[in-house]
Sequence to fold (417 residues):
Amino acid sequence: MTIAVIVLVSLVLAVLAVRGIMLYRRFLELNEFVEGLAKGGEGLSRRYYLRGKRGFSKVLYNLSVLAANMQEQNRENEAFKNRLSVLLKNIPDGIALIDARGRIRSLNPALENLLYLRGHAVSGKGLAESVGVAGLGELLNRARDGSPENKETLAFNSKFLEVTATPFLDVEKGQYAGQVVVFRDVTADKRIDEIRKDFVANVSHELKTPVTAIKGYVDTLLDGAMENREDLSRFLNGINFQVGRMEQIIKDLIELSKIEFGAMTVEKKTVPLSEMVGRVLSLYEEKAIAKGIYVRADISEDCPSVQADPGMFSHILSNLLDNAVKYTDSGGVVIRAREGENYACVLVVQDTGIGVPKKFVPRLGERFFRVDPSRSRELGGTGLGLAIVKHLVLAMGWKMHIDSDPGKGTSIRIYIN
Fold:
């Protein structure tokens, strides 16, 4: 009896020991699984398949389901992160993410290039202090304080930047957490706007001048000058000259608009160069002789013809020669053509005229720009001739370069491909 009890107790203890060992192993298994979940990454790839419906098996199975859901969520988050990264890297606008203290947390490549920054060098520093854009600090402060005026155009070096600051909140705390600041380069838009305003102002001025002159002539005639045949003839000639000026301005504006808006079709053909230059020169020989200057051509045999739109090419030569003859009082004008390195032909219109100061050379070709407006008007110039030439040259895929020295003359090169 005693032996039986001892055996029974021993068996019970043995069973309990085995179950304890099994329980400990399952506990270790559970602990290892949970540690894998905590580490994330590959730990989320582990799975535990249900061996039973109770106890640790059920817990481990539920944890496996949780791990699968977390892994899928991580994949979605990673995919979203990659898409966002690609978007930020390729978006043309500069974007900065700053925290509640105004410190830089992230910059996209466009902003680094726009403001000459390097993200790793300025990370953690104040945005306003790092970029050096005047007025940015005030804009960020207004956005932080909830002001609706969170967009402003600011100057940076020679650029104009449209900056928009948008605050965001901490989702859990509901407190201000930082801002997304977007920088857009609007320099080109700003310059176009300025050019448009200047253009309107210039057109108004250019048309107002002859209109005022005509009104003066008419008023004088109405006051009795018609009775004097000499005065009548002189005033009528003056009116005719001013009407001609207005007509030429309007004609040049229409032509320039057609070129700029692509309304003129470029149809290139083989154009014999000597023949084209000779025909244009003949139109200005009489005017040149009257001024006591020469106009001649020097066309090299290695440049017998060019591929060009005949009408556009004739217009280019006419405008350049007209300008050269107008502003040359002694010496003359030569049109040269030579084969150039990397170009089929380099055409040069060179005069010995009054020339242009170096500081004004870059502005030649701007609409209505004239170094000496009063002299230009006296000579019948509209200030649009070189602008038309520049656009025609570009329309044919060529290049133009201008050199000039006051008192020595001007040289305009056209590189024909």
